[in-house]
Amino acid sequence: MKTKSHFAFFDEGSKKEIRRSILKAIAIPGYQVPFASREMPIARGWGTGGLQITLSIIGKNDVLKVIDQGADESVNAVSIKKLVQSTTGVELVERTQEASIIQSRHRIPEVPLTPEQILVLQVPEPEPLRRVEKSAYKTKILHSENDYSGAWLMLFEQIMKYGRTATGADHPVYVNNRYVMAPSPIPRYDNPKMHQSEALILLGAGREKKIYAIPPYTDVESLAFDDYPFAVETFTGKSCHLCGAEDVFLDELVDPATNETIYQCNDTSYCIERLNKKEEVEVETSHA
Fold first, then answer.
1. Nearest C-alpha neighbor of 67 from the set 56, 80, 82, 54
2. Residue 94 placed within a domain
3. What InterPro entries is this protein classified in (predicted)?
4. CA-angle at 74, arms to 68 and 77, nearest 5°
């Protein structure tokens, strides 16, 4: 006998509790709101926070896209898509423009998001001060007093050691001129996309039981010193070996045939779309 499950996996009471936490997070940009993180059919640390947000806000008419480090077909992304679709029946897409909800791990899509879209980011460690203060009780006091000297000290130590800030990902940001926030382990390249974003950005940490948000058109500034300004990863002179894109975040790979270093778009759907457009142009040119 097959047991009929609730729409979107959770019972309505659970979804309401999570939505209340989301509303509070939207009202206080960058503030970490505690919530009762539920047990999920996937292990904590594999996107349970983002998944709980998605399941709580998704409706029957929504269109879902899930990516994992830029890829639509990774094991983590496929597993999450299967769970959501099996409990909701919503349409799944790969094109960013067609999705109303985008759940992502470690990337913000290359295609600019719109006011009609919601971006859900999976977060392993929501506390930006954890590296300098292990006590959750003390970090809450530091946030309440707007005391972020520990975060600044962490960046200063990197500059003294490496001559620059050395955060490869999860570079802390200052939200709405109030809270320092961990933007999830997105590359520095994606930090500027959060500033004045047209889309609502929701961040969920299931293991740490925290939800926080960046409402549309919110100021988001990456922490940096005046004499050592914030800088994103640079790919000057590099381009995707498949579609030729230059102004995107690229993965560095090794060609197995030649052992030479090659570069490829990290956002696979963006790369495929560019390839399809190039093919259409070539077909039209040949017919002409």
1. 80
2. yes
3. PhnJ (IPR010306)
4. 55
What confidence tens digit (pLDDT) does each residue in 20-52 have?
Answer: 999 999 999 999 999 999 998 888 878 999 999
**Is residue 278 a part of any domain in this protein?**
yes
pTM value is: 0.94
Q: Report the distance separating Cα 10 and Cα 66, nearest Å.
A: 19
CATH code, domain with 156: 3.40.50.11310
Instruction: Assess if residue 175 is contained within a domain.
Output: yes
Q: Which of 47, 50, 206, 243 is catalytic?
A: 243
Residues 258 and 199 occupy one common structural domain: no
Sign of CA dihedral 49, 50, 51, 57: positive
Q: How much is the pLDDT for 103?
A: 98
Write out residues in the chain with pLDDT < 50, as ranges: 1
**What is the helix (H) or strand (E) element at residue 251, kind and residue range?**
strand 250-254
Note if 244 is an active site residue: no
Catalytic residue among 30, 47, 49, 50: 30
- Give catalytic status of residue 59 as yes or no: no
Give the per-residue pLDDT at 1.
45
The closest of 133, 175, 182 to 153, measured between CA atoms, is 133
What distance in Å separates the CA atoms of residue 35 and residue 90, rounded to the nearest whole number?
26
Q: Is 163 a catalytic residue?
A: no
Active-site residue, 271 included: yes
Respond yes or no: is residue 168 known to be catalytic. Answer: no
pLDDT (0 to 100) of residue 288: 58
Q: Of 150, 163, 240, 244, which one is the catalytic site residue?
A: 240
Q: With pLDDT > 90 as the criterion, what percentage of the chain qualifies?
A: 91
